[in-house]
Structure formats: C-alpha cells, structure tokens
Amino acid sequence: MGLVDEREALIDSLIRNQYISKAEVIRAMRKIQRHFFVPDHLKSAAYYDHPLQIGEGQTISAPHMVGIMLERLDLKKGQKVLEVGGGSGYHAALTAEIVGEEGHVYSMERIERLAKRAEANIKRCELDKRVTIVVGDGSCGLKEHAPYDRIFITCASPGIPQPLIDQLKDGGKLLIPSGSIYFQDLILCEKKGKKITKKNYGGCVFVPLIGEHGFH
Ligand code: SAM
Q1: 35 assigned to some structural domain
Q2: Is residue 104, in this structure, part of any structural domain at all?
Q3: DSSP single-letter state for residue 187
Q4: Which of 77, 82, 83, 114 sits at 20 to 30 Å (Cα–Cα) from 100?
Q5: Ligand 1 atom nearest 37 alpha carbon
Q6: CATH number at residue 192
Q7: Which residues of 82-114 are buried (b: 16+ CB within 10 A; e: fewer)?
Q8: Whose CA is nearest to atom 12 of ligand 1?
Q9: Does 214 fall in a domain?
Q10: Count of domains for the chain
Q11: Annotated catalytic, 44?
C-alpha cells in the first residue's frame, strides 16, 4: 500500500471507530499529508495511529487524538485560533484547513528548532498565509492577537492557565489536557461572560506544558 492508500485507510478507521464524524474534519484529515510532518526515517509509520518522535524529546500526537480534539473544538470558518504546543505543525495545518482563508491560526512552540521545522512543513502544504508560528511560552498566551474564538493546548497542563482564559472571546471554547505530568483529562471550557463551564472528555496522555503557567 502506498502512503495515499494508507492515509485513506487510517481516516476510514477513525470514522469507523467514531473518533471523527464531522465532514470538515474528515475532509481536512484526508487532505493534509501527515508524512510531511514526521522525520524522514519515520515516514513509513506516518499513517499508524500512534504518536511519533519529532526530535527534541517531543512528539506529534496520535491521529485519533488530533481527530477527537478537532471534533470537540467545534471549529468554524473564519475563526481566529490559538494553539499552544505547535510541535510538527500538523494539528495547526488541519485547523487552518478547517477555518479556511478567512480564518487564522497562531501556533506557539517553545523550542525554536521545532518551530522552524513546523513552519517549513506548513509552507509545503501551502498554508503559510493562514498559520503563524510563534516561538515562546504559550502558557502565557499571545496577547497581541487576542481575543481568540478558539484556543487549544496540545501539552499536559497542571490546570487551566488564567492568561488563556483571559484571551478567549466571550462565547469562545478552549480545549486542554489538564492533570498531572503522567495522566490528564481532556477538558473543554466554554466562556460565557464571567462564567466558565467545563466538560470532561476523558483520559489522555500528553508531553508537559513547560512554562510560567505550566510545569516548571
Ligand atoms: N500539536 C503538535 C503537532 O501537531 O505536532 C504536537 C505537540 S507536542 C504533543 C507538544 C508540544 O508542546 C511540544 O512540541 C513542546 O515543545 C510544546 N510545548 C511545551 N510547553 C510549551 C509552552 N509553554 N509553550 C509552547 N509550546 C510548548
């Protein structure tokens, strides 16, 4: 099987196992080539439903987890989105595909070498006009482009960083793996005025959010 067929088989299995069902999520996952986002020696494993090492001790998340997060975040065309934990750029590229030309994704990554690679990967998908990679501590958010319609964090956080809540629009949604360094719950927060409602979508395991409002 070639990489294209492997990608189709992976997406079919994510649908069959009910990880993804929204048309825009399925379309984006069929289109964006995960093998652009993994190191050369792991390209043959790009369409396994596994996290993979991307260097610097970090990982690209498993496709089913990315799919779950895209579904739960309820992305719409034209939205401004903040990602904390850019990694390879794969999740940002999928998000950019869904929010479309009128939307924008700001993706923060603390490791400069990964950020540079993510930028190149995103350019290869011709999504560089819709995604801005920013090097820095995403636990503090990115105030200059706030407020955001959606915020998602792709690393494990000890709680919900207040700056991220502050930078979310009224009516906005934030998705975060929250818990210990070893195990977290995927929490969806909705902001309505001063009120934050939370829904738990179950257990997950991410690499840690390292920063002022994360782990130290
Ligand atoms: N979303 C990524 C992708 O599509 O490849 C996978 C992200 S990986 C699971 C988590 C990333 O979060 C790592 O690249 C790590 O360096 C980054 N990270 C950890 N703490 C951070 C922080 N405070 N600010 C920004 N990025 C951070």
Answers
A1: yes
A2: yes
A3: E
A4: 114
A5: 5
A6: 3.40.50.150
A7: bbbbbbbbbbbbbbbbbbeeebbbbbbbbbeeb
A8: 85
A9: no
A10: 1
A11: no
